[in-house]
Design brief:
The protein is of the alpha+beta class. The protein folds into three domains: about 100 residues, PAS domain (Beta-Lactamase); about 70 residues; about 160 residues, Histidine kinase-like ATPase, C-terminal domain (Heat Shock Protein 90, 2-Layer Sandwich). The chain is built from eight helices and 14 strands. Strands 2-1-5-4-3 form a five-stranded antiparallel β-sheet. It has a five-stranded mixed β-sheet with strand order 7-9-12-14-13. Helix 7 packs antiparallel against helix 8. The termini are far apart.
Length: about 375
């Protein structure tokens, strides 16, 4: 736990740095004691802390003092020149970022001052994987629809024939007829699960995400997560999400259930949070349109983490670590999120797994026309 003390000085932009507030790359200014003297909104998102909170901390409160970032800062000061380092992993109890590029330069307006720009390469990789998944999901959806249509009818015929044969057989032959029916039912159930991936249109509307989270929490607390502690950290000023309420319940219920199954029942903890970020505008494939996804919903647990060998393919069908699992749960979650115009990503290491949903804001309702004979002011 980091001790929070009152900052000696407010975190106001030093002279000449106010323009960096609009830069989408995380930028911070550190003084001679490595206290945060400036952090732009992108840096707040990067560190997961507000500028006011960062103003009360040193860099060593967030990162191990023997890390490469501190060596880079030492080189910047020793050489009085810019220094860059690539492929860094920033890991601590409060932060986990991989494939980070750090650019450091002297900041002469502050004694011993250094300005750092941080580029999170892992974020771009996750977005790329999500866009690739969307394209793959469309192909899987077409295949699912074809399977559902072409396979269900023959299965019904096979089951009907087995039922007729059962009436005229005894002993081992009758057992074989029952086996055929059981296997047909099993295949039909699998086909119906695949049919969930079919490309059906989704009806979206303005949704209060906190009501959805409250509903999911009540279900969890009265069932599969009854013995676990569920913490909430919500931004009450969050605008409505543009999505489908039932599908959002399904998505979050799946994520919370996975978290509950992953943690130790004795000290398991699930953390639900919402926040607003300027986020990342991404280009929609095949279009010049760019999508803004500023609303973030996170589901965090303190379980053992996702095995490293499957993290990159976690949202693909048939990828699972559960014994007896079919690996369709997270694949369906990713598809449902994409159907509502959002993105899902996962950061995981032992003791901390975070699933992060980035969702669009509901469009403003059209302004009603004034009554006849009256004008708007």
């Amino acid at each position: 736990m980091i001790a929070i003390a009152k900052p000696a000085v407010p975190l106001a932009p030093p002279d000449g740095l106010a323009v960096l507030g609009a830069v989408p790359v995380p930028v911070v200014v550190l003084d001679g004691e490595l206290r945060f003297r400036f952090a732009n909104p992108a840096a707040e998102l990067f560190f997961g802390l507000s500028a006011a909170s960062l103003a009360q901390l040193r860099l060593s409160d967030l990162l191990p003092a023997d890390g490469r970032v501190f060596a880079l800062i030492g080189q910047v000061r020793a050489q009085d020149a810019p220094v860059s380092d690539h492929g860094l992993t920033l890991e601590s109890p409060r932060l986990f970022r991989t494939d980070v590029t750090v650019h450091g330069a002297p900041f002469p307006d502050i004694a011993g001052g250094v300005v750092l720009a941080l580029q999170d390469g892992s974020k771009a990789q996750k977005l790329d994987r999500q866009l690739i998944f969307r394209g793959a999901a469309r192909g899987a959806s077409a295949m699912a629809a074809m399977l559902a249509h072409e396979v269900k009818n023959p299965l019904s015929g096979i089951r009907g024939a087995a039922q007729l044969l059962e009436l005229s057989t005894t002993g081992a032959d009758r057992d074989l007829c029952l086996l055929i029916q059981d296997e047909v039912d099993r295949i039909k159930a699998l086909v119906e699960r695949m049919d969930m991936f079919s490309d059906r249109p989704v009806e979206c509307a303005a949704v209060n995400i906190h009501e959805v989270l409250g509903h999911v929490k009540r279900i969890a607390e009265t069932g599969f997560a009854a013995a676990l502690r569920i913490q909430e950290e919500y931004d009450p000023s969050l605008p409505p999400v543009w999505g489908n309420r039932d599908l959002l319940v399904q998505i979050l219920l799946n994520l919370v259930k996975n978290a509950a199954e992953a943690v130790d029942p004795a000290n398991g903890e699930i953390h639900l949070a919402t926040s607003y970020h300027h986020g990342v505008r991404i280009a929609v494939p095949g279009s010049s349109e760019r999508v803004h996804l500023p609303l973030q919903v996170t589901v965090r647990d303190n379980g053992p983490g996702v095995p490293e060998e499957i993290r990159a393919s976690l949202f693909e069908p048939f990828v699972t670590t559960k014994r007896g699992g079919q690996g369709l749960g997270l694949a369906l979650v990713a598809k449902l999120v994409a159907d509502q115009g959002g993105l899902i990503e996962c950061d995981s290491r032992p003791g901390r797994t975070v699933f992060r949903l980035s969702l669009p804001v509901a469009p403003a309702a059209p302004e009603a026309e004034p009554p006849a004979g009256r004008r708007r002011p």
